[in-house]
Amino acid sequence: MPDNQTMPRMRGRSDRDRDDRDLRRDHDAEFDDRYPDDDQDDRDLDQHHDGPDPAGRSRRAGRRPVRGTRMLIGTVLAVILLIAAGLIAYFTPLMSVRSVEVSGTSVVSRDDIVAAARIATGTPLLQVDTRPAAQRIAAIPRIKTVRVARGYPSTIEITVVERTAVAFEDRSGTAHLYDVDGVDFAQQAKAPALPRLTSGAGSSDAARRSALEVVAGLPDFLSRQVVSVAASSPSDVRLTLRDRKTVVWGDADRGADKARTLRFVLPRADSEVNVSAPEYPTFR
């Protein structure tokens, strides 16, 4: 073979890969030439989904601070008006005391209640301290509970509950009236139509309160017959009836059961009935 003759070169794998890359590059360039607006369309579509244009967003953002400022100004004005109304009500006679209403009295007079309250007419209602007024009224012995309240626009409302006597104690010809709580709240010369409280041996304040609780809970048929009550201890209350019979009552518990038993047993007794255990009464 002659030396100047050129032999054809064999194509390897690397040459084929290079040809494939060139072919793909040519294809992509041809596609871009045919469809030059696809990327722009995609960008337009993305902008459409993202919302209004930046100018619209800026206009809306500018409106938000205006609304917030208006709300703040409205809140401040409302607070100022409330404070002004409170100052007017507190310092001016616009809402002042013009009348005092008293309810719940039967023995204590209205004038005594109003005088004890010491609330001056014309005082601004918000300046009236109701607690000291109630304490002064409660110092009246016959008053058990009291409530003093403001009634807008110009009224003081006083509600009281008076003590009720359930028995009396004779001390040197003077009747001292006691309520169910054992409070000696009034005195009078004439003995009332109530059971007379007598002191038993070893009696105490607790024994007295137990006796008063018993007579306060007696039914009408029995309370009309009781002339005196005594208690040597809280569990040893004794009643004396008009016919001189004695009823051993015991403590203040189960009063209704004891009264029911006594109604049936009392006609059979001559001098004494014991209903301290109402299921097992005894009499003689």
TrEMBL record:
TM annotation in the entry: 69-91
Compartments where located: Membrane
One Pfam family here: FtsQ_DivIB_C
Chain positions covered by the region annotation Disordered: 1-63
Residues in POTRA domain copies: 95-163
Taxonomic superkingdom: Bacteria
Extent of Acidic residues compositional bias: 35-44
Comp. bias (Basic and acidic residues): 12-34
Keywords, alphabetical: Cell cycle, Cell division, Cell membrane, Membrane, Transmembrane, Transmembrane helix
PROSITE patterns assigned: POTRA
Protein name, per record: POTRA domain-containing protein
